[in-house]
């Protein structure tokens, strides 16, 4: 079992930056890959970014490439999402996810943190 707790959401203006954190605990092998997903009101949940255990492999949705950066601190079992140049369309509940590899990192979910970007 893996437990994921997100933090760092809030209300910001367009162009601002925000950093989300997700503290993970539980079986290490089940959180080799950590990632972020988001769900806007009335929309499907979508992938945002993922990172391997070593941090060498990362991937991003096209909509956030160049603006968002995912990183992790394995000593703290924490994954971060640095979000720069935020846009109103980034408004969503952001969820942390974990799994054994990047191809399957949705075995576990956090409860989410709300990010609201005003124009």
Envelope shape: globular
Number of helices: 0
| Total DSSP E strands | 11
For the biggest sheet, the summary is:
7 strands, mixed
Radius of gyration: 13 Å
Q: Kindly name the structural category.
A: mainly beta
Low-confidence stretches: none
Distance between the termini: 40 Å
Question: What's the SSE pattern?
Answer: EEEEEEEEEEE
Mean pLDDT reading: 96
Approximate helicity band: under 10%
β-strand percent reads: over 45%
Provide a descriptive summary of the structure in words:
There is one protein chain. The protein has about 120 residues and is mainly β. The chain has strands spanning about 1-5, 10-15, 20-25, 35-40, 45-50, 60, 70-75, 80-85, 90-100, 110, 115-119. The strands form 2 sheets. Strands 2, 4, 5, 6, 9, 10 and 11 form a 7-stranded mixed sheet that branches. The protein starts with a strand and ends with a strand. The mean pLDDT is about 95.
